[in-house]
Amino acid sequence: MALRPIDNALPTTPIRPKKQPKIAIATQKQPPRTVNDETHVPVPSADVAIDYISSDNLKPMLDPEAKVQSLIEDLGSKNWIKVCESLNDVRRFALHNSSLLFPILGKIVLVVAKTMKNPRSALCKTSIMAASDIFNAFGDKLLDPSTSEAFDGLLIQLLLKASQDKKFVCEEAEKALGLMVGTLTPLPLLQKLRRYVSHSNLRVRAKAAVSLSKCVSKMGLEEMEEFGLKELIEVAADLVNDRLPDARDAARSISTCIYEALTKDEEQKMEVWQNFCHSKLPPIHAISILKIVKP
């Protein structure tokens, strides 16, 4: 009987190669590329440090008349570092050459408010610092018809930034709101703040309430009456049971200011105050106000 070749006796099984252990190789930094024997400088990374310059350290520009011509265009740059530099130029104009900035103030305020919406914290804080310098430089001019609408957008952005969690942005926005109250006439500013003390965001509501109460503290009885004593005490009554303590404190401050102005020349202070509260408010709200403000 013919024998089969031994190679065909059994099927062969291929030998699987052993896995080689993985070796982590540290990535080496590549040396800077050279172009024409000159070192190529890389583009600054997104986390490049930005210096926040105080107003006292902002010096005048050498040629402000030429610089103001390109200011709006520079503020619209896609390079965020250039925008930061342009915002500091806005601050220089406000501090040293406000007359050159005034003809385009409405456009500038719109851009500053828009920049506050940027998620990059450096841009946001620099724009808030610009707003502070604008308040100091222009005051009530921001309430002129040509800039009033732009100011409304700036105001809500400051309230939103003062309400957020980033501490250094929040603190800068609160500082700007304080300067706003200190530099603008109380009555027209109060009329603008009024809409925000009933905002759906409880933090915005509280920040608006604090600014509103500071406005009221600067007003006399005549100004309060011009705004509306009934509306003012209603604002306080709405805030007195708010969820946030800042809003409740503002309610107490507003109520106290009204009480002091209303009873300043009165002998029967308690009687005048009670009659006022009961005549302007529903009974349950009147009781709440009378509990927090006592002669």
Automatic annotation (TrEMBL):
Domain TOG span(s) in chain numbering: 57-287
Protein's name in the database: TOG domain-containing protein
Residue segments, region Disordered: 1-23
GO biological process, one term: microtubule cytoskeleton organization
Organism (species): Lupinus angustifolius (Narrow-leaved blue lupine)
Gene Ontology cellular component list: cytoplasmic microtubule
GO terms, molecular function: microtubule binding
InterPro entries hit by this protein: ARM-like, ARM-type_fold, TOG
